[in-house]
Structures are given as structure tokens and as C-alpha cells.
Amino acid sequence: MSPGQNDDDFSPPRSSAHPLRLWYTSRGTLWNDSMPIGNGRLGGMIRGVPTQEIISTNEDSFWSGTAMDRLNPDAASTLKTVQQLLVQGEAPKAELEAALGLSGTPTSMRIYQPGGDLWIKYDGVNTSDIGGYERWLDLSDGTAGVYFEAGGVAYKREYIASVPASVLAVRLTASEPGKLSVRVKFERPSDGQNRFVDKSYAEDGHSIFSLYSSGDIRAVTGARVRYLGGTSRQIGDNVQVMGADEVWVYSDTETTVRCQDPLGEAKTKLAAAAARTYQEIRDEHVKDYQELFGRTEFSLGESTDEQRSMPTDKRRQTLGQGAFDPEFVSLYFQFGRYLLISSSRPGTFPANLQGIWNNELSPGWGSKFTININLEMNYWPSQVTDLQELNQPLFDLIEKIYTSGKRTATEMYSARGWLAHHNTDIWGDTAPQDIWAPGAYWPLGGVWLVSHIYEHYLYTRDAAFLEKYYYLFYEAAEFFEDFLTDYKGWKVTNPSTSPENSYKNGSITGSMTVGSTMDNTLLRELFDNLFAATAVLGKPETQLIRNVKTLRDKLPPLAVSSRTGRLMEWIEDFNETEPGHRHMSHLYGLFPGSEIKRGDKKTWDAAVAALAWRVSNDAGDMGWSRAWTTALHARVLDGKSVQADIAALLVNLTHNSLLDAGPPAAFQIDGNFGGTAAIAESLLQSHEYDDQDGGDGQRVLIRVLPALMPSSVKGRFGGLVARGGFVVSAEWDGGKVTKVVIQSRIGGKVSVTAADTGVKLASEGRDSEAGEVLVLDTVAGGAYTLVGVSK
User: Fold this and answer.
1) Residue 756 has what pLDDT?
2) H helices of 275-357, where?
């Protein structure tokens, strides 16, 4: 075979000179310390073992089975009993009835499953002879690599997950000809003698295939081997290459979720890949990846030579000593974008609790889609860091949830419209998940999800997109018109929870209640988005719209505790059972929502006090929770706390791979995405509107550096996106804005301010002295340069 000449540079790598590289001088001993690659559909975790590489593979549609009917047949009759008990304050009795009559049957929906491990075992290379070892993940081009020396020969491996070729690809090279002798095999699991594979075999001298299943889903993983020089043979379910100069391994996994003949599909894709050179596939991959990744540039300043010289794991660990490492924080920011690009592409399923990377048959929380914060957090960075199209898998899933949720609304709640509870899977399951009062019976999951659809509209102003999904808002409102009940003069959700938290009401401890603060905030947001979409699209005001306007006015307003001065979490002034609870649900209106505004000083101060109370009681003890507190601190313009949060997130709640640590020792990816979004929120905010000139209040107000980390004295960013379709770049020095460039994608007026850094902005002889806001009247495609002037 003749794949092409090996023109590698086999000098030792200098990853310390690459600011966008994660790099290590030791192999990954734990799965959590492996390097992730992915193309949205296929994922691989790379340990980087010199003598025998193990790539843990995943395919995003391989779950524990197909769709189920889990609706409890007694739900409709039980609901009335639960509602009556909650109004009477009998939470424990209501929770028992809910456990029996509202819980899904069976309790759990489908869970995400691992593929298996692709082994590449070197023959003739001894562990005791290894030197010069390094492994890396290069965010600039979406490649990973391993380098080591043995017996006077330098060996190098490179790994990619290609979207255009739809395969995982590995290239093996050596500094001397004829030194590559390897065996390629697939096992599931790698330490269990392949006991979860139904059939495995080799064929045509260079291909291997393994067939396995989970429930009703059948899957196939195949690999195809090409090489330069040497010889090969197939033996058993292995392909063995001997004395080669260069080896390529292509791998694919297919399931019956996507095609009727997964074996045929895998063979077709592998044959297409094998017909091309590795370099051709690599070049195509890099072009595809960089088109997304290269949209945003980011720098919080320069690190020291000593910091740059440390491998990623050592560098992360030294953050606990207190020194700010700006380039490392910038690397972490971009790593979050890399993960989203790698785990969510149009045509795939959304990034789940672990993105697409899972090696457990029973992963934490099923590695599903938890929709009372976690799935939503996965997509927080998508709009602001200019990865808008990566939301499409989320929007596709919402449509599946809608279909399932209509039936749940009818049979469980005797209502029109649709809803979802706090978990779902790739089939859009909407029956309650778990027998668990703090979370299972919360009916607002779908409402939170559709907020992402309206956010996409706010960033793009794409009316055709809004028209496509308008029915989701309309029919969600239909459900709540039927579902809301009366309580002390208000219209409330019943049952309700403040997701996953519990309260004390005298001698009673409970989780279920009516009309939690989060529910009311989410519903006001849903109704307002429906009203705005109706106006934007020029739709008539139906009777439903008129009814919902009345309902909105009857929702319980945000309330401040007369005892504590903090924003109340429940409809009554209860105490939390856990003051440092990981969920900040009652602060949804602060972030990611925007109901809580600085102009309403009483409510704003109460929200700030509630955040301070939670944090003082050790909230943020999971990666995703700390990411949420970081975003909240950014929203309240507290850059000092943002910096402290990021340090805590990186030191205490992040693995050496920079993957988020959910609960202790586990991996849960939402903290990575939330961390990236929170850093962006500290540098650019656009959730407010400005009407200082007596306008209609719908002119976006862009705040530049609203919560800059104090140790980021000098820096820049480029390509962050503000609502309204404005692409923003900025530079700062001495903690103050020096330059801002606004690029307008769709035109229109926008207000810009850097007042939070003590700077006014000036442009073409005009400045922001009046109200510290500069108003630009932009045209589509126009670019506007502003300079910062100290006041």
C-alpha cells in the first residue's frame, strides 16, 4: 500500500510555545484525564499510552433502548389529590401520593451507552524503554497527538474526529522506516474480555468489525487499516501490521437509530475514507473545524515564562497558590468552545451530560439530558461565542419533546398544549424521571428549553426561524392556561418545586409546593416572548393571547423576605434546608434570564443578597454550580468574585484534562460550557435595552467589560456576539477599555457603554458623556470603531 510519504518533523514537541494546546508529560491514567476528540456524532477519549493506545469510542445515538411509554396510568386522578394536599400545606402527604401516582412507570427513561475501546498495540516497543514522552490536544486545529522515543526511534501519533469524512482517524509514524508493528482490535469493554460484543471478526486483510446491541438498538464499530511499507495479515478479530513506515487507522460506529443496516453503512464510510489519504482527510477536517473555532479570539493578558513552561496538569494545580494565569484561563475558555464544536453539530443529537464521551454502562444520572439547568447550560456559550448553528441539535430535540409532551399534557394533566419535566432522552421522553420530590414533578423543563429558541432570535433577528418555532411558544402557553390554579388570589403552578431544593415550613420539611419563584419567572418570560413573537410576525391577537395576558398579571410577583432581605425562593417565606444549595433557581431572573433589573433597586439588592447568602454557605460545590455562580457574579458586575469563582472552578472542580468535575471524581460537561459562558458574560453583556432618547425601549444596550477580572490588567477579545447581531471586539489596558469595534450583521441602532470600567466611549467626534452611553445607527455590514476616554 502507498498512503504517501512520511514527512513528519520528529524533533521533540514544544507544546509550551503553543498557547492553544493542552499538553502533558505523562499518559492519562484515568479516563477522566484522557483527551477528548469528537465530530458531534462520534467521540473518542485518548489516554496516550505509548505501547498500547486505547481510544474509548462513543456514538451519540447509542442509548439503552428505544422510546418507551412511561406515563403512570393513575397520574390524572393522582394529580388532583396532590394539588389539594399542597394547597393545604401537607407537603409530605402530597409527595408520597406523587411518588406513587405521578412517577413514571418504569421510573427511569433511557440512558446513554458507551461504544467500546479501539486498541492499537505496538509490538517491539518496551515500556521500560520509553523516553521524551508528551501528549497534547491542539485547540487551534482540532487535533490530538502523542510523541515518545524508544530504542533510538521517535514515534508519533495524531488523532482527529472528522465531520466531513464522518470517521475517527489516527496516523502512526516513526522516525525510521520499517519500525511500526502494530495490532488493531476492538473490545467492549477493554478490561472484560469483550463480553459485551455479539460478534467480532476481521475481513479483507485490513478491516475489523464488532457487532453489539443495547435493548432494541443494534450497533457496529468498524476499523480499516492502511499502511506504507511492511506487510499485514488478519488473524482472528485483529489486523496486524508488521515493519511499516506509516499506518493509518480509520474507525466508525453506526446504529439502527440512524440506519437499517449499520454494518453496511460503516463499511461504506470506511471504504470512502480509505480511498483518500490521511492528509486529505486531515486538511478537510481542519478547514471545517477552524471555520467555527476561529471566529472568536481571546486573551486576558500574558502569563509568565514559568507558567507557560509547565504542563497543563501542573499548571492547573499551581493556580491554587494564588497567582493569576491569564493565558491558562483563556485556554480554558477556548476549551469550552472546542468541546461544544466536538459534541454538537447539525444533524447530531445535543451534547448530553457528558457531551458525547462516556465509558460506563450506568453513567452518572444516565448521561441523559437534565433540563432543569444542565442541558440549557451546555448551550449558554453558543450564541455569545459565535457558534449559533451548533444549537440546531437542541432545537431538533425540542421538537421531539413537543410531540411527547402533548401526550403527557393530555393524559397526565388533562390539558392542551405540551410540557416536559426535569429530564429527557433522545426520544423526547416527558414522563417524570425518578421517584424524587425535589425534582421529578417539576413541569417547567420545556419552558426553559424554548427560551433558547427566543434567544437565538434575539441574536440573529431571523424572523423565518421564529416563525418556524412559534407553535412551541403558543402551545406551551396553552398548557399553562389549563394548568395554572388559584392560590391566595394568584394563579400558580401546582405542583411546583424550586428545582432540587427543599424547605422548612415550621415542623414540616418538603420539596413540593405551589408557585415557586423560578416557575413564575419562567412563565413571565415565556408569555413575554410569545407576545413579542406574535408582534414581530404580525400575527393576530387570539383569545389565547388575551387570556395569557390576564394570566401573566395574576402570577405571583418577585418577593423580598421581610426577615432576611433576600429574594424569596418559594411563594411563602420558607427557610432552605440547605442554605448553600447547588441550584440558584430563584435567581434565574438574574441569569440566564433578565427579569431582575438594576433599575428596580429593591429586587436587585434582594437578588444580590440571595446570591451572597448562597455563596457564603458554600454554594458552587459542583463544577456546573460554580459556573452558574460565576455567571451570576458577572451579571451583578462583581469582577473580583468572577475571578475567585474561576480559580475555584479550575483548582477544585476540574480534572487535569480540563474536563469539568460534576460531583466529586465524576465528569459532567456542563461546568465547562457554563464556565466559558460566564467568562464571556464578564466581558460582554447585551441583555438590557436602552431608551434614553425616548425610543421604544428595544434598542440593545451593549456593556463592554462589565465585570472584568481585576488581575486581567491588559487584554483583548474578538468575535463575541451581542444580541441584535452585533459582533464586538475590544482591547483594554490598566483595566480600562481602550478600543471597541462593533460590526453590525443586520443593521439598526445600538447603545454601547464602558461605564463600568470608568471609561466613556467616543467615535467620530461624538462621545458618551450624555448618560455614559454612545448610540450608533448602524447599517448591515458596517464596522464602527470606538475609543475609550478616561472620565
Assistant:
1) 87
2) 278-293, 305-308, 312-318, 326-343
Residues 175, 156: Cα–Cα separation, whole Å = 8
Residue 317 inside a domain? The answer is no
Q: Which of 99, 100, 82 is nearest to 91 (CA)?
A: 82
Instruction: State the Cα–Cα distance between residues 473 and 743, nearest whole angstrom.
Output: 31
Question: Given this model, what pLDDT does residue 671 score?
Answer: 97
What's the confidence (pLDDT) of residue 768? 55
pLDDT of residue 1: 38
Contact between 383 and 721 (Cβ < 8 Å): yes
- Give pLDDT, residue 549: 98
Q: Say whether both 174 and 27 belong to one domain.
A: yes
**Boundary (domain end) residue, out of 579, 606, 622:** 579
Prior bond of 495 cis (ω within 30°):
yes
Q: How far is CA 495 from CA 108, 437, 489, 499, 595, in A?
A: 20, 10, 17, 12, 23
User: pLDDT per residue over 637-646, tens digit each?
Assistant: 999 999 999 9
Q: Cell numbers for 475, please give them.
A: 402551545
* Closest residue by Cα to residue 623 from 596, 652, 656: 652
Cβ 674 vs Cβ 628: under 8 Å: yes
Rounded to an integer, what distance in angstroms lies between the CA atom of residue 254 and that of residue 291? 26
Quick one: how far is CA 173 from the chain centroid?
35
Separation CA 514–CA 495 (nearest Å)? 5
Q: Which three cell numbers stand for residue 419?
A: 410540557
Among all chains, which residue has been given the C-alpha cell 499518559? 27
CB atoms inside a 10 Å sphere around CB 321:
7
Where are any strands of DSSP class E within 361-507? 369-370, 423-424, 485-487, 490-492, 503-505
Burial 600-639 (b: 16+ CB within 10 A, else e): eeebbbbbbbbbebbbeeebbebbbbbbbbbbbbbbbbbb
Pair (378, 440) in one structural domain:
yes
CA atoms within 13 A on the CB side of 338: 27
d(CA 717, CA 325): 17
pTM above 0.90, yes or no: yes
Q: Which residues of the chain have pLDDT under 50?
A: 1-7, 694, 770
Residue of 180, 174, 268 lying closest to 220 (CA atoms): 268
Separation CA 393–CA 345 (nearest Å): 7
pLDDT for residue 11: 85
Question: Is the peptide bond preceding residue 189 cis, with omega within 30 degrees of 0?
Answer: yes
On whether both 97 and 132 belong to a single domain, the answer is: no
Task: Provide the CATH number for the domain around residue 191.
Answer: 2.70.98.50
Instruction: Provide the pLDDT for residue 771.
Output: 54
At 133, which amino acid appears?
Y
Give the phi and the psi of residue 346 in degrees, each rounded to 5.
-50, 130
Q: Select from 193, 156, 170, 141 the least CA-distant residue to 42.
A: 170
In a domain, 497, yes or no: yes
At 691 the pLDDT is 72
Cell of 294: 476561529
CA atoms within 13 A on the CB side of 366: 18
651 occurs within a structural domain: no
Residues 144, 81, single domain; the answer is no
Q: What are the DSSP calls for 716-755, one per residue? A: EEEEEEETTTEEEEEEEETTEEEEEEEEESS-EEEEEEBG
Give the integer Cα–Cα distance in Å for 775 and 312.
43
- The pLDDT, as a whole number, for residue 696 is 53
Q: How many CA atoms lie within 13 A of 313 on its CB side?
A: 16
Residue 630 domain-assigned (yes or no): no
Q: Which residues contact 90 (CB under 8 A, 6 or more apart)?
A: none
Query: Quick one: which H or E segment has residue 38?
Result: strand 35-38
Residues 6+ apart with CB under 8 A from 417: 406, 409, 475, 476, 477, 478, 479, 480, 481, 482
DSSP H or E stretch at residue 57: strand 52-59
